[in-house]
Amino acid sequence: MTKYQNQTRLLAAVDCIIFGFDGNALKLLLVQRAIQPEKGRWSLMGGFIQPAEDADTAALRILKKLTGLEGVYLEQLHTFSGPHRDPIERTLSVTYFALIDIHQYEKQLSDEYHAEWFPLTEIPSLIFDHSEMVKMAREKLRYKAALHPLLFELLPKKFTLPQLQNLYECVYDTSFDKRNFTRKVLSTRLLVKQKDKDKGSSKKGAFFYKLDNRHYKAHFHSFLNIIPNPPIK
Amino acid sequence: MTKYQNQTRLLAAVDCIIFGFDGNALKLLLVQRAIQPEKGRWSLMGGFIQPAEDADTAALRILKKLTGLEGVYLEQLHTFSGPHRDPIERTLSVTYFALIDIHQYEKQLSDEYHAEWFPLTEIPSLIFDHSEMVKMAREKLRYKAALHPLLFELLPKKFTLPQLQNLYECVYDTSFDKRNFTRKVLSTRLLVKQKDKDKGSSKKGAFFYKLDNRHYKAHFHSFLNIIPNPPIK
DNA sequence: TCAAAAGTGTTATGAGTACACCCATGG
DNA sequence: CCATGGGTGTACTCATAACACTTTTGA
């Protein structure tokens, strides 16, 4: 098999924008870059695509390496390809954004990679074009979460309505009416009320809810509104 | 400057999914592949990213080379990266989808590239993973056009409401109530009624409309609905 | 008993949908 | 004069948004 002639080969990397929510603020998981150039500066977690991998696989591998987590919400975001984005050698970066339950992320590995959570309001200066990647990821998160029940991925399996509302308020940097929010969320039939309460944040305690995974999968993509909604039954 | 060690370099290409609308059907512009392997089979228009280009620039170049058009609606879609998607040599493909006014596309160049419009219902077998790319582009088109006034890009500068409705009906493979459609479209305030009519498709003739480009740019991104809409004034 | 957060119902407004007839014109 | 496609209005239903008080309980 002859190869394609007279074409430039280049490096291909994956970078992950990893979101978490600690109950009060949206956060991003960053690492201190381990290799030259820019060694020691803050960076997204990334790595080169290996010969046997596609980009999705590489992203999963990298995410697992950093957090130990599998089955995480992961979605390809955008490919950054400026010829000079990495000053050492041309590298194309396929970015992914990930939503993880911050409480499942064990600190164990953070020392190895010098990983740290940063509130989105206090992101340090990042290498290369990583700040642009973060900006795009944040926009996409807001966009998509407005249309699909996405933010549940940031919460533990059991969560309360006030927690959920708080999360939405963080993402959109605003506040919602509690009654309307509750009604809207419950009307999706995506949540199942549990018998027990979270007594952590109030004396009265707030009921836990869990996702109904059947409905979740089935209704994830059906949130559109410009096209006239066909009669439901 | 030392290079990164022990990493594989690979080819990076761009492929364009080009949509057009001829008044009756949505169509895709395909070319007959000019090089081995798979020479002569139908394919998306594409090419390798050149040393001085980023992917956007490469896509614009390729689109201009094929159609002669500039200022076309072009958006990065997804990056395909399977290790064996091109059997000759590993090639990563950054795909773009483009919406063009089919009437502005002059046939002049089609001979040079063996280009041809195919109705979406009659797409031939394509090389590599190009069918998957087309499928994803079609889904994205439907998704995005339901939320943003995107389909105008497929129409001439002056168009009629029946033409517009017909286009939406093609994209969503359904039919809409004429009165409701008109009301909804006009309520966006995106259209400006012209004095003249298109007499091409009826005896009475249908009024032309043009996009109000100010409103178009300003309102393109503001079509969401889950987050409570703030009071308009 | 009080402070702090959880939970709940009603009303008014606007958007979406279903639906049917008249208009203008070229042949 | 009639066939063809263009253009328009109304009534009903449902979703949204605004709004305030009661409940629980640990300190």
Notes on the protein architecture:
- Two copies of one chain form a homodimer.
- Chain A is of the alpha+beta class and 233 residues long.
- Chain A has two domains: 11-145, Alpha-Beta Complex (Nucleoside Triphosphate Pyrophosphohydrolase), CATH 3.90.79.10; 150-225, Arc Repressor Mutant, subunit A (Orthogonal Bundle).
- Helix content of chain A is 27%, strand content 27%.
- Chain A is built from six helices and ten strands.
- In chain A, strands 1, 2, 3, 4, 5, 6 and 7 form a seven-stranded mixed sheet that branches. Chain A has a three-stranded antiparallel sheet with strand order 8-10-9.
- In chain A, strand 1 (11-21) and strand 2 (26-32) form a beta hairpin.
- In chain A, 30% of the residues are buried.
- Chains A and B meet through strand 5 and strand 6 of A and strand 5 and strand 6 of B.
- The structure holds a DNA duplex (27 and 27 nucleotides).
